[in-house]
Amino acid sequence: SQNVEQSEDWTISSRSSIVSSGNNETLPEVSRTTPTCHLCQSTYKDWEVSFENWGLIDAVLQPMNLCISCYKKSIPEQVDTNQIHIHEKAILHDYLFILMEYCESTLGEAIQNCDDDKILWNYFAQTVQGLAHLHTKDLIHRDIKPGNIFVHKGVVKIGDLGLATTMSKSNLSSPSSPFVTPTSSHDESQSQVDVLMTTYAGSVKSSRVGTFLYTAPEIESGRYNEACDVYALGILLVELFGKFTTGMERIDVLSKFRTSHSLSKTWVEAHPIQASLATKMIATNPTQRPSCGQIIGELIQLGLFGKEEAPNVEVLSTLVSGLTTQVSMLQSKLWKQEQETKRLRKLLEEHNADFSLY
Fold first, then answer.
1. Rg for the chain (alpha carbons), in Å?
2. What residue spans carry the Low complexity bias annotation (predicted)?
3. Is residue 135 a contact partner of residue 229, using CB atoms and an 8 Å limit?
4. How far is C-alpha 270 from the chain's CA centre?
5. How far is it, in rounded angstroms, from Cα 245 to Cα 253?
6. Stretch 106-115: mean pLDDT, rounded?
7. What percent of the chain has pLDDT over 70?
8. DSSP 179-246
9. Looking only at Cα atoms, what is the longest distance across the chain?
10. 49 phi and psi angles, rounded to 5 deg
């Protein structure tokens, strides 16, 4: 017989082994057919045996096409079978399958035949809640749009986090550095452009991610924080209540809103709350945009977020965190102004200026 050193953990397949072409390492063969035992001729499910702390013997090392029953009979009597564990082998395939939850529709599809403003506000509020949760986890979605938001039995679910990235807590919370440089390798992804929209000539910067109509302007610089998601929400809010009849009308209205922050007088008169909130959400200066927590707070104050949809503790924490960040940034701005005032006063003193004139 062949002498083999003991090992703490060995596993051998019930199927014949094959030799790889690289380093002569024996690997279990993966078959696509149901195996047949060469002793009893019965078919069986593929299995494997694990055993610990005993020397391997020829009877185990030899190629085996045996069912579990015949294998057990082939083990010599002197072998301690208490250390042998036989179980069915996991089936291996050439393809990776991902099981995902099925949703009835995307948000874009759900709003096409919806004329109930209460339902639309509910969709919007749920989306804000979902983003607030992502932001508490230091995640920026970067591709918020109707096609990436799903609706199932009235429940909104944010999906497609393929462009999501993380941000540094320290950088984000620092009043003097409200923007962060994302750490995700997805920054190398080429931007996705919305339907019927063409990119400008020339190369696209690696930091330019997301879908054109919903992408915040600061994305181009590569330095941004969660406010870029709020920008996309602002565009989304207009789209929710837009009632567009054609795709070209949608692109025309949303593009104009992006560039000039203007909406038709008729639409603003019919949707004053939406127009006011959306305009604040797409402010060119990201620091002037409300946080998700602040948006939820405003919806509650306006009575657009009912008690039955009251935000959970985590969302309320986001609201408080957003307000705290805003206060800290204002305090930092005030401190800088005070320092500048002191500097100017000192400069005037050096030139013997008369302060009474100022």
1. 32
2. 12-21
3. yes
4. 35
5. 12
6. 91
7. 63
8. -B----GGGGSPPB--TT--PPSSPPPTT--SBGGG--GGGGGT-B-THHHHHHHHHHHHHHTT--SS
9. 111
10. -120, 135
The Cα 112–Cα 108 span in angstroms is 7
Nearest to 227 by CA among 140, 327, 294: 140
- Cα gap 4→58, rounded to integer Å: 10
Distance of CA 37 to the CA centre of its chain: 48
CA pair distance 253, 238, nearest whole angstrom: 9
Q: List the structure tokens of 234.
A: 């602002």
Q: How far apart are CA 292 and CA 226, in angstroms?
A: 9
pLDDT 10s digits, 311-358: 555 556 655 666 676 677 778 778 888 888 888 888 888 777 655 555
CA distance 31 to 29: 6
Active site residues: 143
pLDDT digits (tens, 9 = 90+) for 130-141: 999 999 988 999
* Cα(83)–Cα(186) distance, integer angstroms: 48
Task: Name the one residue in this structure whose structure tokens are 């879908």.
Answer: 211
pLDDT-derived band of residue 235, with 50, 70 and 90 as boundaries? very high
Write the CB contacts of 350 (distance below 8 Å, at least 6 apart in sequence). Answer: none
Output b/e per residue, 292-304; b: 16+ Cβ within 10 A. bbbbbbbbbeeeb
Structural contact between residues 235 and 254, judged by C-beta atoms closer than 8 angstroms = yes
Neighbours of 46 (CB within 10 A): 18
| Whole-model pTM over 0.70 | no
- E strands in the chain: 10-13, 17-19, 26-28, 47-51, 84-88, 105-106, 139-140, 149-152, 155-158, 165-166
The domains located in the chain, with CATH, are: 10-88 (no CATH), 105-320 (1.10.510.10)
- The predicted pLDDT at position 288 comes to 94
Tell me how many degrees the CA angle 173-176-180 measures, rounded to the nearest 5: 60
What pLDDT is recorded for position 50?
65
Residue at 273: amino acid letter:
I
